[in-house]
Amino acid sequence: MNIKLEKTLKAISVDELNAMQEEAFTGIIAHDNTLLLSPTGTGKTLAFMLPVSTLLVENLMGVQCLVLAPTRELALQLEAVWKKMQTNFKVNACYGGHSIQTEINNLSEPPAILIGTPGRLVDHIQKKSFDTSTIRVIVLDEFDKMLEIGFKEEMAFIFRSLLSLQKKVLISATEALEIPDFTSIESPFILNYLVENPDNDLLNTYVVKATKKDKFETLFSLLCSLSSKPTLIFCNHREAVERVANLLNQADIQAGSYHGGLDQLEREKALIQFANGSIHYLVATDIAARGLDISGVYHIIHYHLPALEKEFVHRNGRTARMHAAGNAYLILSPEEHQPEFIKDSLEEFVVSNSNRLPEPANYQTLYISGGKKNKLNKTDIVGFFIQQGRLDKEDIHLITVKDFVSFVAVNRHKIKSLLQFTQHGKMKGKKYKIEVMK
Question: Are residues 64 and 156 part of one domain?
Fold first, then answer.
């Protein structure tokens, strides 16, 4: 392993690559066209980002690698991983719901790697926000999902606009659609880790039998029976997500909701709170089953049964990741039966009747009305909260700094005093609004 790669792995706290990542590293570098198929949670992001980092040329002005992602959330997560790698190559992410003028300004000094959703990248190509002639590498992350949700025309336009491509990498967690013609890929080098890893020995799957058609009482009892750990609850429809989340909150179990009907800011807020430990329960549609890198999920609950096996696999793929154990639960009403695609009979999990509420989250998220564009960073926020807010360092958990706003997870027992102590304080000479995230 070269010194540069060792430094990158140290920056992201990875001791060694797994077999898939090692083969992908050498394969992507050696071949012009690569198709990587590997289950969710096996480290596909690093599998393509590490070789890409070695392919970039220093001191070359212009975008060298374009990465397409199906969702804004995945684009942001890919950007965060690249920054954590500390490669010294600039990265930007472009996506709908974000200020296009801010993105244009960022692209005036082009990044070496540009990550974005297909629709927004088309907008920038049409506006000539960046020069496409310098792009030699393209990566399609979750390419089958991009096709599934209707980005075929945008993807085809992007490929037609890139006349200097030398290397193409396609990534997926399923053996899905055929490789689209617009890629001009006929005989790719294929890395298929789906067949070799059909089962996840770290995932325990149970059936939970509801006594009524309406499963909410059973869900409530199930949550009261489980450890208070990060839990994803899947419903099939947006309306059901809102109903279940509202009922949980009314029952004093704090839960967030996540579905395609929410605007971008509301979706980001839900994910931030779930990721930083401010809420342990996130109720979601299948939009949360793919394209998100949510770490630390311990329980998956299928409130509604998935219609297809691949949906079941993707949902369960949110837990038992990277050598960590996890559990999945199917709640069946009296008239429902275990889906045929689940071959084996499942062990029944019997819920407790005590209905003792789960332990509340240790943190609460604070909103700050300033971010990167206001020259605020994590160090500024930590210093302000410790010096003027009178917090100890361990009272502050994860901090998310975006362009114009920031979010901080803080010990919930210190929130009231913090807000009192900081109400007239200034960060970098300016007063910002600080309040509990709504």
Answer: yes
